[in-house]
Amino acid sequence: MKRFGGAFAGISIHAFSNESLIGKATVVDLTLKFRDTYGESVPRELRNSYVISDDGSGNPILMDTAGKITIYFHDSGESELLYNSLQELLASTILKII
């Protein structure tokens, strides 16, 4: 993300700079908005995560410090592990495209 910037890989993956297809919001912008909006209501294990995307319905998709990808359901306050790594996310979406 730091080296190549944001891109689309089945979902929009935001980084520090992005391709025009996914918009101008950086991973920093999305993470600050997430933390400002949800604050202490976020489960402790997600508080140090950063937002890399959303599902199109306003549910942030986060990456934690171990690299695990989780979705946070803003309506219920629940979360669900989607992928164990960014590599797993990319492999899954690329296989769906091929």
Walk me through the structure.
With 98 residues, this protein is α+β, with helices and mostly antiparallel strands. It has one domain (7-97). Helix content is 24%, strand content 24%. It is built from two helices and six strands. Strands 3-4-5-6 form a four-stranded antiparallel beta sheet. The longest helix is centred in the first third of the chain and has 12 residues, at 27-38. The radius of gyration is 13 Å and the shape is globular. It starts with 6 loop residues before the first strand and ends with a helix. The model has no long low-confidence stretch (mean pLDDT 85).
Helical segment count: 2
Number of strands: 6
Principal-axis shape equals globular
The poorly predicted ranges are none
Helix content: 10-25%
Biggest sheet: strand arrangement: 3-4-5-6
Number of domains: 1
Distance between the termini: 23 Å
Largest sheet: 4 strands, antiparallel
Order of helices and strands: EEHEEEEH
Name some characteristics of this structure.
single chain; 98 residues; alpha+beta; two-stranded antiparallel ribbon; 6 strands
